[in-house]
Sequence to fold (876 residues):
Amino acid sequence: MIEWLDTIIQGVLLGGLYALFAIGLSITYGVMRVVNIGHGDFLVLAAYLALWPVMQMQLNPFLAILPVAALMFCLGYSLQRILLNRTIGPNPLAPLLATFGLSIILRNGLQQVFHSDSRSFQIGALGTDSIAVGGGIAIGLFPLIVFATAIALTVLVSLLFTHTRIGIALRATSDDAETAGLMGIRARHTYGIALAISFALIAVGGVFAGIRTTFTPESGPAALLYAFEAVVIGGMGSLWGTFAGAVILGVAQTLGAKIAIGIGILAGHLVFLAVLFFKPTGLFARTL
Amino acid sequence: MLRVRNLVARYGDFQALFGVDFDAAKGQIVALIGANGAGKSTFLRSIAGLMPSKGGEIRFQNEDIGALAADEVVRRGVSMVPEGRRLFRSLTVEENLRAGAFAGRAGRWRLETVFALFPVLRERRANPATALSGGQQQMVAIGRALMSNPDLLLCDELSLGLSPAVVKDIYAVLPKIRDEGVSIVVVEQDIDMALKAADEIYCFMHGRVTLRGAPRDLGREAISAAYFGLEDR
Amino acid sequence: MTERGVSYTVSRNTRTSVAAVWLGVASALAVLSVPLWGSPALMRWGVEVMCYLVLAQMWNLMAGYGGLMSVGMQAFVGVGAYSLFIFAQHLGVHPFLAIPLGGVMAALAALLTSVLVFRMRGGYFAIGTWVLAEVFRIAFSNVSLLGGGSGQSLTVMAHIDRTTREIGVYLIAATVLIAASVAINLLLRSRFGLGLTAIRDSEDAAESQGVDVKALKLQVYTLASFGAGLVGAVYFTSILRISPNAAFDPNWVVAAVFIVVIGGIGTLEGPVLGTAIFFGLRWLLADYGTWYWLVMGAVAVGVVVFAPAGLWGYVRARWDLQLLPLQRRLILSARQPQRGARTLELAGKTEVGRT
Fold:
């Protein structure tokens, strides 16, 4: 019994990491109605970007997150303004095809530069420390940090959406881009900010993923699929729904892996498909 | 103030406007009347920058705005109340109004002055905009357009879906707005309402202006002819 | 027929299109003649090229005409391939007869799982199909009868002598290609094709014109999956060895997308042109695997952003060519005799063609 409880707690904490993967995807879809197929590959790119200061300058991986997130923010904004905005228009396939192409470029570019060796970040004892919470259950300190960070960033992002000028612009554009234009809200800028926020969040997710386990240039698709599943399970238009979806996915994967090794990821996929079948709008869709 | 010459607009193969000439002076309320599909809304959307014009010229305060997108047009001082109100459904009343101020133009219209114009909105400011009644939603839409402190306000079908009493209340506000120095162009299907409210009338049919003039100068028959195309063309 | 004094005739055939039909017949004969003079290596390469071309045609049918952006088509390549192994290796069906069964099983799988993926649209549909492909990959990795994660070999093929095997696989691949090309051509000229073209131009408009958009999309999805299943079965008959990672390799769909996008999405000629470029570039950059995909990706993104009609779209606009007689042309005669025949595409984008 304790064993299962322990597994579920681990799953919930893993969900925190997936929330960091997913919230950016949720934001870009919410604002632009476009799914960035390269989402996971950009997450891996962020991890490789952090590799350099950590390896060369012995920077603590946690400290590397800040400059990498800032860099990814700028990259996201520029990418949207320079390239992706041109694909938004009458043909709904164009942005999908463009981000699909970008994902392949990125994956092979990283392969070319870093080869397929798997990498990871070392954080010393912090990586193995845990807190005993009684009843024979111990919670890993690092997974707890990840989870707390995910909550903090989700709060921050939802405050940004509700309490700032750019938040109003993002929500207005999401509701009705044409009318937002009538108000003087420039969609091309708003879209840039949306992708920038998304990229800053996956920078955090990418480095954390690199601390938790290893990554290779091929790690992107898995990250995309987990992020996507969390968004769909949670339901459209709600950041906390996405967060909950990520937690459900994390629990499904750890429980699956506990039942049989090699089944963990499949269990996650199956929960996603089940939600799709029984409640295609997601479990926590905002009802508007 | 607004001077349109020979404006042409099309949706794909379908030509919606055939060389429209139009003028609106400062401090005027101009009403566009005409049957469904006459081109009134298309005309308004062209001016607001929601539709690329395919010929002709749109000059506003001596600047050519014909090629500008909507977010630039509003910065030049032309603001629009779109057909069907199009309020942002995930924003509150107050946030909807704030969204209207993105063009960054300074002037008389602020949250406080809009609330003074529509006192009921002050009470409902924290409500989701879509929770309001139709008439109140229309007030939000007008207030939102005013927040950009326009010199010219374009209103598309203000009375759509509203009861006659509510329409009367909404129209009662237009002169107050005009008296603050904002010119107004309204698209209106209700001819009587338009004749009462407007300083000048333009009648559209099949993408062309068939009649223009001050309401008092226009006979009922001429309007009917221009509206319904009873004369033989 | 006249309207406002303009008389016109509806025509699908142009002089170039008649030539194109003969070109098609000639290419088909040329492709079929390869076993008479080509080396086994050439035939093997030919099988691969034809597999990619058919897969691209299928993806184009689905995405370019049906508006269904799937990045999970490898699911059906894999199901087709594994069905071949199940029927031929384990149930004793002759491998050549098991190939069409691969297509059938893939179509069945598509039909059954459509209940899930058709709950999503647009980008959601795209990634959703990818999840489905992953589920299939993991599922097949766990079937020990089929060799689990490491896969197995098609040892039953040893019963067939080598020459028969090579020529047989080649001819089957050629037949699939020719049949797919003819079928797609006929299909798009039919009522079904008109509906699809209407969807491509505007889904809402098609719906309001009484086109059953959902049913049509399901049909085109199932059909494309059938084609993908055939491709998987043929390809792995030629390769003789299967593994979940090869059968459900996302690179299948990557290749199909790049071929179609670069060649010209939503055109019949595009996949052919795209396949030529795809294999041409691969030949040029043979030693640089990652560079090859980098270049393909960059070209594809460039095409999507700056020349969305693709290479064939560019060629067609530049020279007003119409090789395959798909669009119906309205030839106006009365009022514009001076500029020759003005053409108006009815089935394609409704714009007045330039001559």
User: Anything to note?
Assistant: The interface with chain B takes residues 165, 168-169, 171-172, 174-176, 178-187, 237, 288 of chain A (CB under 8 Å).
